[in-house]
Amino acid sequence: MKYKQLTEQQIIISIDRLTRFKNTEDKYLRVFKDIILSNLITPVIKKSELENMDYLEITNLAETIFNASLPESDGDYTINLRLKDYENSIYNNNKEVQKLLENKLNYKSALNIQEISRPINLRWLNLLTGDLPLEEIRTKYATRFPISKVILAEGITEEILLPKFGRLLGYDFDKNGIQVIGAGGKNQVVKTYYKLAEELKIPIFVLLDNDAGENLAQITPKLRNIDKVHLISSGEFEDLLPASLILKTINYEFKNFATITNAEFNPELSAVANLVEIFRLKGLHEFKKADFAQKVEENLFDENDISYEIKLIFNELANMAQNINT
User: Fold this and answer.
1) Which end of the chain has a smaller Cβ tally under 10 Å, C or N?
2) pLDDT tier at 321 (50, 70, 90 boundaries)?
3) Residue 323: its pLDDT value, please?
């Protein structure tokens, strides 16, 4: 077998992708196949051939190339074993996937590669060499991993703001292992929930806008007893933001261009509709949910910026966790 070594960037990208919160089979196959297709010279293996190859053979090929790109292993596979246990604790992995997980990738040497800024999953990976329980690692170092629960929401606003709301309410997502997934719309929430409920062993908290009643009806028959759905009482997630927080954000971020008052909010319109109109009338750039959510996050300072229903949502999350642990 002839191959070229992985670059340091390829090594870091590989271990990053292997430890993200993503279906075990999908991420391992992607990484292992990328290593083989990019670095194996002979024998020549086509992508179509990889699709039909036994998982153990794929693992052995990728492992050989990966390890040959690093200093010799000292035979300590603590990280590999702990990763395998972790993946099996959150995903419903079959016997074939175990072949992917039972690898001897030289993680210890890979983690010695210097990188200015590492994602949170690689910082967590670096802590797996010891024997500290995974939950203690997460609590002590705020690593988010191991993931203990998923919040499935409709959009980007929830992804950005929920972790900040949590910190202000004493419910740090990184210490509690909470992963937020923005599905990209209420119809996508249903499809994503079906997929996650099939794959995951951990609880899913589904957050839906008030107009998603039909989607709630689609989810309910498949709702597992460890999962929960919260249907927002009125409007969408942006309508849960206090007007004072919205005003504060606009008046701070655009203080050199425009200011607004409560009188400029139309009570018959949703928060988003109001913001679209205010941005238009004030000659600001086009209103975009993601950009505005980032600005709101930067102007969130204390619990007074959090509405009653958002506090209620976090109370449900806390009770959900408590019920699971008892």
Assistant:
1) C
2) low
3) 47
Mean pLDDT of 113-126: 89
**β-pair partners for 200:** 91
Separation between Cα atoms, residue 112 and residue 171, nearest integer Å? 33
What pLDDT score was predicted for residue 276?
A: 95
Beta-bridge mates of residue 229: 206
> Using one digit for the tens of pLDDT, what is the confidence trace for 231-244?
999 999 999 999 99
Q: Return the structure tokens found at 227.
A: 């999962």
Six-digit token string for 48: 């179509």
Query: Using alpha carbons only, what angle is made at residue 207 by residues 18 and 251, rounded to the nearest 5 degrees?
Result: 100
Q: What is the pLDDT of residue 326?
A: 34
Task: Compute the distance between CA of residue 80 and CA of residue 315 in angstroms, rounded to an integer.
Answer: 36
CB-based contact 183:192 (threshold 8 Å): yes
Burial of 266 (0-12, 13-18, 19+ CB in 10 A): exposed
Distance CA 78, CA 86 (A): 12
26-34 average pLDDT score: 98
Contact of 121 with 132, CB cutoff 8 Å: no
- Asked if residues 1 and 65 have their Cβ atoms less than 8 Å apart, the reply is no
Rounded Cα distance between 270 and 108, Å, is 52
* 254's tokens: 């655009």
Angle at the Cα of 32 from the Cα atoms of 16 and 15, rounded to 5 degrees: 15
Exposed/middle/buried for residue 79 (C-beta within 10 Å: 0-12, 13-18, 19+): buried
CB 166 within 8 A of CB 177: no
Q: What phi-psi label fits residue 154: left (phi over 0), alpha (psi between -120 and 50 degrees) or beta?
A: alpha
Among the listed residues 103, 202, 186, 227, the one whose alpha carbon sits nearest the alpha carbon of residue 145: 202
